[in-house]
């Protein structure tokens, strides 16, 4: 009897420790908890309840006459409504992916409309529906809130101008693919996470063979730290205006090069003559539009016109715009909405009013405006990313400190291209912070080629 009691006591203790361990893992290591407990349970629940869930969620169709006829003659049983056919079920470290072939009569929008009901039925955190091919959708379920503590997936599709920046709420990576969506706009109120987003972007871009050009008219407070990796930096509207003129000249000379080689796109040029792609990072865009005196208006108008020209034509010659600000509407002045229309890669953080959310997404993904207004103030970094296809998703960047981004820029400084036209704008490089002393500035070496 005492042996049995001991065994029960040990089993109880182990159970308690195990239960505590699982409870701890659920809160502090949700990925581990999901892999050990959530995934098998959800997979089982999905398998057992699939047909009935699809039925009650209105995701079944009446069988075809032929099927009904065959069923009557062969099986002699009542014919059931038909749910989408399961093609593949795959567990991931964040959730469960199910690929479904839709029967005639169901469309992806029907499944998307039922995603909230499916989420409750299978007890998962979220269900996102993505059309992967005509007639095939993928249900991307997440077992826990992956945006709470962001960890980027280990395997991410890369490409010559592809930068992983953030995590989507379905557990996949959100990437900026400049060849697909050449120009981007990031909006958000104070403390919404714009700088963190830019930091992640710069950290990714710094590792690619591209030239980075900074325009930061807040006296360079954000972008000076990236100096080792910047080919040019403008910190005042006057400098920005001159830099934009140079970029437009660069664009024109690149077009001449394309015409000499009889191609219409930078990426069609032979590698030996292909100029390096440039990403122009504009921080706090409103600073470029604001004018204190009448005499500044002419410069402002010219600057906006140059940016609109770059927005309209520079994709073909590999110059991409990445603009960031708090608001971007017609109140900024002439040309603002024309420029905004060119910036189709939109990332909108928490904003102060619905009107700003509409400025950001109303023209390209109107369904996403509500999602922006619903971003909670206590979750900085959450944003809604939309593009001109009308699709959108909720994203969040991993936390990256300014020191981390600056360190990556220093590490990849050797990739900074020497562009003679931009040499006058090459920023001074802050010395590596060795102590708590204020960083000193080292003047850049003159560009020789
Ligand atoms: N992805 C994120 N995850 C966690 N915390 C974040 C994230 N993004 C931003 N934050 C936090 O939110 C705060 C504000 O972020 P950030 O400075 O990027 O905002 P901002 O929009 O650039 O603000 P401002 O316009 O005032 O400069 C910071 O304390 C930052 O650590």
Automatic annotation (TrEMBL):
<feature type="domain" description="FtsK">
    <location>
        <begin position="169"/>
        <end position="358"/>
    </location>
</feature>
<dbReference type="InterPro" id="IPR027417">
    <property type="entry name" value="P-loop_NTPase"/>
</dbReference>
<keyword id="KW-0547">Nucleotide-binding</keyword>
<dbReference type="Pfam" id="PF01580">
    <property type="entry name" value="FtsK_SpoIIIE"/>
</dbReference>
<protein>
    <submittedName>
        <fullName>Plasmid transfer protein</fullName>
    </submittedName>
</protein>
<feature type="binding site">
    <location>
        <begin position="188"/>
        <end position="195"/>
    </location>
    <ligand>
        <name>ATP</name>
    </ligand>
</feature>
<feature type="region of interest" description="Disordered">
    <location>
        <begin position="423"/>
        <end position="449"/>
    </location>
</feature>
<dbReference type="GO" id="GO:0003677">
    <property type="term" value="F:DNA binding"/>
</dbReference>
<dbReference type="InterPro" id="IPR050206">
    <property type="entry name" value="FtsK/SpoIIIE/SftA"/>
</dbReference>
<dbReference type="GO" id="GO:0005524">
    <property type="term" value="F:ATP binding"/>
</dbReference>
<dbReference type="InterPro" id="IPR002543">
    <property type="entry name" value="FtsK_dom"/>
</dbReference>
<keyword id="KW-0067">ATP-binding</keyword>
